[in-house]
Amino acid sequence: QVQLVESGGGLVQAGGSLRLSCGASGRTFSSYCMGWFRQAPGKEREFVAAISWSGVNTYYADSVKGRFIISRDNAKNTAYLQMNSLKPEDTAVYYCAAGPYLKVVANEYVYWGQGTQVTVSS
């Protein structure tokens, strides 16, 4: 069992940066791949980024590639999403998720956080 708690969301102007954190409980964090997803009002949840259990492999959605960086610190049981050059279309609730495989599909992830709101003003 893994419990995930996101933090770091907020209101930022376009072009600004935010860093989201995802803290995990339990001693098995390092055995899970971690993903970040987002959901804007009226839209389906979409993949943002994912990282392997070791941190060696990462995947990004085309919409965030070159602007967002996913990372993890297994010693701190925490995953991060550094978001740079933010755009109004990045506005959404951001969720972190844990699963056994490095996937871009939400239903491949087993554990989910409650989400944190990111709002980017123009």
Structure description:
The protein has 122 residues and is an all-beta fold. The chain is built from no helices and 11 strands. The protein has strands at residues 4-7, 10-13, 18-24, 33-39, 46-51, 58-60, 68-73, 78-83, 92-99, 111-112, 116-121. The strands form 2 sheets. Strands 2, 4, 5, 6, 9, 10 and 11 form a 7-stranded mixed sheet that branches. A 4-stranded antiparallel sheet has the order 1-3-8-7, with no helix packed on it. Strand 5 (46-51) and strand 6 (58-60) form a beta hairpin. The model has no long low-confidence stretch (mean pLDDT 96).
Write the layout of secondary structure elements.
Blueprint: E1 4-7, E2 10-13, E3 18-24, E4 33-39, E5 46-51, E6 58-60, E7 68-73, E8 78-83, E9 92-99, E10 111-112, E11 116-121
Parallel strand pairs: 2-11
Antiparallel strand pairs: 1-3, 3-8, 4-5, 4-9, 5-6, 7-8, 9-10, 9-11
Spell out the key features of this protein.
0% helix, four-stranded antiparallel sheet, seven-stranded mixed sheet, 122 residues, mainly beta
Describe the global form: globular
Distance between the termini: 40 Å
Q: How is the main sheet built?
A: 7 strands, mixed
What's the total helix number?
A: 0
**Proportion of helical residues:** under 10%
Strands, total number: 11
CA-based gyration radius? 13 Å
Indicate the low-confidence ranges by residue numbers.
Answer: none
Q: Give average pLDDT, whole number.
A: 96
Q: Structural class from helices and strands?
A: mainly beta
The proportion of strand residues reads over 45%
- The helix/strand series, from N terminus to C terminus, equals EEEEEEEEEEE
